[in-house]
Amino acid sequence: MFSHIRTIWLTFLHLFKKKVTIEYPEEKVKLHPRWRGRIVLTKDPDGGERCVGCYLCAAACPVDCIALQATEDENGRRYPEFFRINFSRCIFCGFCEEACPTYAIQLIPDFEMGEYKRQNLVFEKEDLLINSQGKYPGYNFYQVAGIQAGVKGKGEGDNEEPPVDVHSLLP
Amino acid sequence: MTVTQHVLIVVGVLFVMLNIAAGLIWVERRMLALWQDRLGPNRAGPLGIFIVVADTLKLFFKEDWIPPFADKKVFVLAPAIVVGSALLSFVIIPFAPGIVVADLNVGLLFFLAMSSIGVYSIVLGGWASNNKYSLLGALRGASQMIAYEVFMGLSLMGVVMLTGSFKLSDIVAAQQDMWFIIKQPVAAIIFFIAGIAETHRLPFDIPEAESELIAGFHAEYSGMKFGMFFVGEYIGITLISSMMTTMFFGGWLGPAFLPPWAWFFIKTFAFILFFILLRASLPRPRYDQLMETGWKILLPLVLVNLLVTGAVALWTRG
C-alpha cells in the first residue's frame, strides 16, 4: 500500500523533470558522421568523377535500387553514362558504399528527403554528384591505378615504377 | 426559477460537460506525456489543444462497421447507454447555489441508480459483439461493478447519516464548517477507489485490459461508436470527480475571492488530474486480486466505518 502511494508521488515528480522529446523540425537530431542517409557520388581532388562504372554497387544492392550504364571518354577513362538511384526503394544499408572500389558512392548524414510525388525520389546523376571528396579526401583512383586514362602517364603514379622495356632484358 | 433559466441551465450543463469530456482527450494525453517525461501532442493549435478536433474528426470519418455476427440493435444501443446514464447523473449535481438541473430529494440514490445503469452498456456491448474476448470483458465488467457498487453506496451512507438528507445541496450546505473529508476520510478514500472501478479506469480497467483481452467489451467497436465509449468514460471521470467534490470536499464552498462555480470546477479538475496520475503510475491488478480487495477488505472496512459513524452520530445527539 505504501509503495503504491510512493509510486504515485514519484510519478507526479516527473512533471518537473526535463523532457526527453526532441521537437524535431525546430530542434535538429544529432547525427553521427557515419550515419547512413542520402547517397551521393563524390569527386576526386581534380574535380573528376570517381565512379568508374564497375556495377559493383548495383550488384551489391539488396533492393536493386541502383541503375547505371558505364561508358568511356576519349582518354579511355571509364565513367557512368547515367547513374540512377530510386530512393523510394533504397533501404540505406550502405552495402553500395562498402562495395565501391573507388570510394565514389558514399552515404551522408542527411535523411530529410521527403517528397510528395514518388517519382521525385528517383535521383539522376546530376542530383547525386556533389562537388566534394566526401570521407576520403585526397584519394584519386586514376592516380594509383595502373592504367593510363588522361590523369597520368603509365608508371608515373604513386608507388609505381616506369614500365619495363622487355627488349632490354635480352641476354 | 423561470422556465428560460431552467432551459439555460440544462443546455449549459450539457454543453460544458460534453466539452470537458472532449477536452479531457487533450488533457489526458498531455498530462500522461508529462508524467512519462515526454511532451505529448503540442503541434495543432496553441499547446496542441486542437488535437481534440483532429481526434473527433478522425473518429467521425472512420468506417462505422457493425460485425455481421453481432446483434445489431443491441450493438448500436450499448454505447449510447454509457453516455446517456453518465450525462443523466449530472442532473443532480449542484455546481453552485441555484445552478442545478434538478435538486432531487433522492439525489444521491439517483446518482447510484444511474451509475448502475451504466454497467448495462458494458454488458450489452460485450454480449452483442458476439466475440469471446468481448464477452469475457463484459463478464468482468459486470462482476466488478456489482462488487464495487455495493460499497460505493455504503461509503456514501456515512455522509448521509451526518447530513440527514439525500439532497446534494443539503450535503454541500452541511459542509459549511468542516468538509466531510475530515469527518469521513475512510469513506472518501473508499468512494474514490470504487469510483475508479466504476468508471473502469486504470488501474481498474479490468473489462478492457488491453494486454489480456485486446480491448475487452469494445473490441468490435469502431468509429464514433467506439468514440461514445470513450466520451462515456471521460464523462464518468468528471462525474466521479464532481461527486468527490460534492460529497467530501465541500462542493462549491470556498473563500469568497472566487465565485462558487469556480471553486467547484477547480476541485473537480484536481480530481480529474489525480485520475490521470493514477493511470500514469499504477499497474493493473489481477482480476481475482481486484475482487478479493473489494469483498474482503473494502467492504468490511466500509461497514465498520458506517458502524462507527452511526455510533458517533447517536452519541453526539443523545
TrEMBL record, chain A:
Membrane topology, from the record: Peripheral membrane protein
Cofactor names: [4Fe-4S] cluster
Primary location recorded for the protein, binned into one broad class: membrane
Pfam family, one: Fer4_7
Keyword Transferase: no
This protein's UniProt keywords: 4Fe-4S, Cell membrane, Iron, Iron-sulfur, Membrane, Metal-binding, NAD, Oxidoreductase, Quinone, Repeat, Translocase, Ubiquinone
Cofactor remark from the record: Binds 2 [4Fe-4S] clusters per subunit.
Chain positions recorded as [4Fe-4S] cluster 2 binding sites: 61, 90, 93, 96
Catalysis: reaction(s): a quinone + NADH + 5 H(+)(in) = a quinol + NAD(+) + 4 H(+)(out)
Entry's localization field: Cell inner membrane; Cell membrane
Gene Ontology process terms (BP): aerobic respiration
EC number: 7.1.1.-
Molecular function GO terms recorded: 4 iron, 4 sulfur cluster binding; iron ion binding; NADH dehydrogenase (quinone) (non-electrogenic) activity; quinone binding
Residues holding [4Fe-4S] cluster 1: 51, 54, 57, 100
Domain of life: Bacteria
GO cellular component, one term: plasma membrane
4Fe-4S ferredoxin-type domain span: 39-71, 81-110
Top enzyme category: translocase
Subunit: NDH-1 is composed of 14 different subunits. Subunits NuoA, H, J, K, L, M, N constitute the membrane sector of the complex. NDH-1 is composed of 13 different subunits. Subunits NuoA, H, J, K, L, M, N constitute the membrane sector of the complex.
Function: NDH-1 shuttles electrons from NADH, via FMN and iron-sulfur (Fe-S) centers, to quinones in the respiratory chain. The immediate electron acceptor for the enzyme in this species is believed to be ubiquinone. Couples the redox reaction to proton translocation (for every two electrons transferred, four hydrogen ions are translocated across the cytoplasmic membrane), and thus conserves the redox energy in a proton gradient.
Family statement: Belongs to the complex I 23 kDa subunit family.
Name assigned to this protein: NADH-quinone oxidoreductase subunit I
Organism for this UniProt entry: Paraflavisolibacter caeni
Gene transcribed to yield this protein: nuoI
Automatic annotation (TrEMBL), chain B:
EC number(s) given by UniProt: 7.1.1.-
Keyword Transcription: no
Annotated compartments: Cell membrane; Membrane
Superkingdom to which the source organism belongs: Bacteria
Signal peptide: none
Gene Ontology CC terms, in alphabetical order: plasma membrane
Any Pfam family hit: NADHdh
Record-level GO BP terms: aerobic respiration
Reaction it catalyzes: a quinone + NADH + 5 H(+)(in) = a quinol + NAD(+) + 4 H(+)(out)
Residues annotated as transmembrane: 7-27, 43-61, 73-96, 108-127, 147-166, 178-197, 234-255, 261-282, 294-315
Membrane topology field: Multi-pass membrane protein
Family matches, as InterPro entries: NADH_UbQ_OxRdtase_su1/FPO, NADH_UbQ_OxRdtase_su1_CS
Residues forming coiled coils: none
Predominant subcellular localization, coarse grouping: membrane
Keyword Mitochondrion: no
GO molecular function, one term: NADH dehydrogenase activity
Similarity comment: family membership: Belongs to the complex I subunit 1 family.
Subunit structure of this chain's protein: NDH-1 is composed of 14 different subunits. Subunits NuoA, H, J, K, L, M, N constitute the membrane sector of the complex.
Function, in words: NDH-1 shuttles electrons from NADH, via FMN and iron-sulfur (Fe-S) centers, to quinones in the respiratory chain. The immediate electron acceptor for the enzyme in this species is believed to be ubiquinone. Couples the redox reaction to proton translocation (for every two electrons transferred, four hydrogen ions are translocated across the cytoplasmic membrane), and thus conserves the redox energy in a proton gradient. This subunit may bind ubiquinone.
Protein name: NADH-quinone oxidoreductase subunit H
